[in-house]
């Protein structure tokens, strides 16, 4: 995992106008060696996950269903207790907090979550104003100040403050998603975690919401984690991307570099399967989808990897760290074998 500043956009990590929320170059979110076990009997769902997010940075998390994306988000929120490793938000070790200390940390509103399904996550009996202001009410913010901040949050997400009097059922899908973002940003969180924030929306609303997240990090210096199946959406806004497979980060780095030149066969498979991400894919989809001779026990991807060798099935891969992180036995060699053939002149 890189410790460098975000790649790609060259923006001021504090968003130019926003406050320096973490007092310098320390990351807003630092996840180290995270392991989470769930179920009974407990099975590993996340293993040795490292992730860093800085102020004003957007980090995408991709991976197929069941890879552990939501579990990672819930653990960062302090909703799940790790079996190993640590989660630090703005210098506070969230993974070590319990009971009253954890509740107090949540009340600070430093980390806020935007849910996947705004209709289900917004209380139908409450007005938009009450929903957006709920966190402030719990924190004891007086009514007049609360109303002012709710209005401001609605304006920031591009909604008419008059909508504060309506209920969720009286809004469109795009408006509801904006309300859920307004509810999250009203406490001016240092870190915003969005679980599939645009998957339920049509293309035009999707673009609006993505632009909005981009604006928020610029204006408020918010660090944003975006979980998404949609590589194309992420490619438009994220600075970095982490690729999860079966609970492990197999690749991480600046999103343009990772999508242009994937160094893990699973990343290459995702990119080659999503034609909107890059005009000319570097790798041949059929080659990436070829059967594997690898087994299980070493690399988590060995059983699906057409380039797997005996070592992949037997031994966990070495992790190359730096601006790009890759966990693969054959980082330097598989890519050539999978390259799209160049047509003869
Ligand atoms: N409470 C639980 N008990 C046991 N296993 C669980 C529990 N919650 C999640 N899992 C398992 O953990 C794995 C990761 O689940 P998670 O919801 O984090 O995946 P995800 O990447 O967010 O998937 P999706 O894209 O479908 O939302 C899955 O295999 C899931 O079945």
TrEMBL record:
<keyword id="KW-0813">Transport</keyword>
<dbReference type="GO" id="GO:0015833">
    <property type="term" value="P:peptide transport"/>
</dbReference>
<dbReference type="InterPro" id="IPR003593">
    <property type="entry name" value="AAA+_ATPase"/>
</dbReference>
<dbReference type="Pfam" id="PF08352">
    <property type="entry name" value="oligo_HPY"/>
</dbReference>
<keyword id="KW-0547">Nucleotide-binding</keyword>
<dbReference type="InterPro" id="IPR027417">
    <property type="entry name" value="P-loop_NTPase"/>
</dbReference>
<dbReference type="GO" id="GO:0016887">
    <property type="term" value="F:ATP hydrolysis activity"/>
</dbReference>
<dbReference type="InterPro" id="IPR017871">
    <property type="entry name" value="ABC_transporter-like_CS"/>
</dbReference>
<comment type="similarity">
    <text>Belongs to the ABC transporter superfamily.</text>
</comment>
<keyword id="KW-0067">ATP-binding</keyword>
<dbReference type="InterPro" id="IPR050319">
    <property type="entry name" value="ABC_transp_ATP-bind"/>
</dbReference>
<dbReference type="GO" id="GO:0055085">
    <property type="term" value="P:transmembrane transport"/>
</dbReference>
<feature type="region of interest" description="Disordered">
    <location>
        <begin position="1"/>
        <end position="23"/>
    </location>
</feature>
<dbReference type="InterPro" id="IPR003439">
    <property type="entry name" value="ABC_transporter-like_ATP-bd"/>
</dbReference>
<feature type="domain" description="ABC transporter">
    <location>
        <begin position="29"/>
        <end position="271"/>
    </location>
</feature>
<protein>
    <recommendedName>
        <fullName>ABC transporter domain-containing protein</fullName>
    </recommendedName>
</protein>
<dbReference type="InterPro" id="IPR013563">
    <property type="entry name" value="Oligopep_ABC_C"/>
</dbReference>
<dbReference type="GO" id="GO:0005524">
    <property type="term" value="F:ATP binding"/>
</dbReference>
<dbReference type="Pfam" id="PF00005">
    <property type="entry name" value="ABC_tran"/>
</dbReference>
<feature type="compositionally biased region" description="Gly residues">
    <location>
        <begin position="1"/>
        <end position="18"/>
    </location>
</feature>
């Amino acid at each position: 995992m890189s410790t460098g500043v975000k790649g790609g956009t060259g923006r001021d990590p504090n968003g130019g106008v926003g406050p320096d929320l973490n007092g310098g170059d320390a990351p807003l979110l630092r996840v180290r060696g995270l392991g989470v076990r769930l179920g009974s009997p407990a099975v590993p769902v996340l293993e040795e996950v490292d992730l860093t997010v800085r102020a004003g940075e957007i980090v995408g998390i991709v991976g197929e269903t069941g890879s552990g994306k939501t579990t990672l988000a819930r653990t960062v929120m302090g909703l799940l207790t790790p079996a190993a490793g640590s989660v630090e938000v703005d210098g506070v070790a969230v993974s070590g907090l319990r009971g009253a200390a954890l509740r107090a940390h949540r009340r600070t509103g430093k980390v806020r979550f935007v849910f996947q399904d705004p209709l289900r996550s917004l209380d139908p009996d409450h007005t938009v104003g009450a929903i957006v202001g709920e966190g402030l009410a719990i924190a004891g913010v007086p009514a007049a100040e609360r109303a002012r901040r709710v209005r401001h949050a609605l304006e920031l997400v591009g909604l008419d403050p008059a909508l504060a009097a309506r209920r969720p059922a009286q809004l469109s899908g795009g408006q509801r998603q904006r309300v859920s973002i307004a509810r999250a940003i009203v406490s001016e969180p240092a870190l915003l975690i969005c679980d599939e924030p645009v998957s339920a929306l049509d293309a035009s609303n999707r673009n609006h919401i993505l632009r909005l997240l981009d604006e928020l990090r610029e204006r408020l210096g918010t660090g944003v984690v975006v979980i998404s199946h949609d590589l194309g959406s992420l490619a438009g806004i994220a600075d970095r991307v982490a690729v999860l497979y079966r609970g492990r980060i197999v690749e991480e780095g600046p999103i343009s570099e990772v999508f242009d030149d994937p160094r893990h066969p699973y990343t290459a498979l995702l990119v080659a399967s999503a034609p909107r991400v890059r005009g000319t894919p570097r790798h041949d989809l059929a080659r990436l989808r070829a059967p594997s001779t690898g087994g299980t026990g070493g690399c988590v991807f060995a059983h699906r990897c057409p380039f797997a060798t005996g070592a992949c099935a037997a031994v966990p891969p070495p992790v190359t760290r730096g601006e790009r992180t890759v966990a693969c036995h054959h980082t330097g060699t598989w890519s050539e074998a999978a390259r799209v053939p160049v047509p003869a002149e």
